[in-house]
Write the structure tokens for this entry.
Amino acid sequence: QVQLVESGGGLVQAGGSLKLSCGVSGATVCISLMSWYRQAPGKERELVASITTGGTTGTTYVGDSVGRFTISRDFAKRTVYLQMNSLRPEDTAVYYCKSQLCGWGQGTQVTVSS
């Protein structure tokens, strides 16, 4: 059974940093195409960043995550990360990891105070 479990969310002041983790159990192929999404209250879920099997050359960032967020992956640990720097109150949301082949995690709350 495939499971994606996010961790690392919490409360941080504006300008601070958080590193989210997404542990992936199940088939190894599940970790090959991974993304981070977020959903703020009253808003639709939106893509933040993606990583493909190309490693660092296969990363994509969307919107204001460019230059502030970094997605990475450790195949040995079967974990995908999202390093978030220079956080803003508008980054407040539930962050979800998604395996393109194996589904969604349950989400982790990130709250940025002003």
Summary: The CA atoms of residues 1 and 17 lie 32 Å apart. The longest strand covers residues 18-25. The chain has no helices and eleven strands.
